[in-house]
């Protein structure tokens, strides 16, 4: 297995919204279908820490630790008897131009670069974490207060649906999709006791997602995270045929 990227993902906050499937359809890559939970489509505003980042097992001096904010939704693809559950990113935001350039150049990802920052305050009982990013001279933010104790996700729960997608799908063009695989263990999650979301979805992600400005999250989760590895090899999926 040839690993392109390896890093620790920590304090992974998922702010989850029900969304009309027709909003997502223009962003749906060929060869995959929307993955629904109890018949509903979801989209997640995500904030987490990237730490100890390595490309092809080489550390990135001074650039290996940063915040990432992304917006993603959920898809599925069936090959014979194998069901692959994956994510599609609308946008991924980080603070470093060179890291974004590498991801966009090599894989045609959707990384953008804006100033970001975070704060973490914790004691033996609670943790307060805040991710912030600057868009059009205005700071957006995700804030969560959670218990420090953690537990396994329950089977068939919304949090398990949200967190446990182990493939990524990138829309290269109207005919071609790229598939890649992620590796990480099943994460433990913390109990969220308070949260506050200040995100201008229209300014950040276009008018297509402006409805989220007026939508209350269905649920907010935070996971401990772990080391994560992303494979180098990507499979190209074509409209009428497949080849690696």
TrEMBL record:
Question: Which branch of life, at top level?
Answer: Bacteria
- What's one Pfam family the UniProt record gives for this protein? DUF2071
InterPro entries, sorted: DUF2071
Name assigned to this protein = YqjF family protein
Which species is this record about?
A: Flavobacterium paronense
- What does UniProt list as this organism's lineage? Bacteria, Pseudomonadati, Bacteroidota, Flavobacteriia, Flavobacteriales
């Amino acid at each position: 297995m040839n690993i392109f990227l390896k890093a620790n993902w920590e304090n992974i906050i998922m702010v989850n919204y029900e969304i009309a499937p027709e909003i997502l359809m223009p962003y749906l890559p060929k060869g995959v279908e929307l993955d629904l939970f109890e018949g509903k489509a979801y989209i997640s505003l995500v904030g987490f820490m990237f730490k100890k980042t390595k490309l092809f097992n080489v550390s990135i001096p001074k650039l290996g630790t940063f915040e990432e904010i992304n917006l993603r939704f959920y898809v599925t693809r069936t090959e014979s008897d194998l069901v692959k559950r994956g994510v599609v990113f609308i946008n991924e935001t980080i603070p470093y131009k060179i890291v974004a350039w590498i991801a966009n150049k090599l894989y045609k990802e959707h990384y953008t670069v804006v100033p970001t920052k975070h704060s973490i305050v914790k004691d033996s009982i609670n943790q307060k974490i805040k991710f912030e990013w600057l868009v059009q001279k205005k700071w957006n933010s995700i804030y969560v207060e959670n218990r420090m104790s953690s537990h396994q996700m329950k089977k068939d729960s919304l949090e398990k649906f949200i967190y446990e997608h182990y493939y990524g799908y990138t829309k290269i063009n109207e005919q071609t999709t790229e598939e890649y695989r992620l590796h990480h263990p099943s994460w433990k999650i913390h109990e969220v006791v308070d949260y506050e979301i200040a995100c201008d979805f229209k300014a950040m992600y276009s008018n297509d997602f402006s409805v989220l400005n007026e939508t209350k999250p269905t649920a907010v989760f935070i996971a401990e995270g772990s080391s994560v590895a992303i494979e180098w090899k990507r499979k190209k999926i074509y409209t009428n045929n497949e080849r690696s």
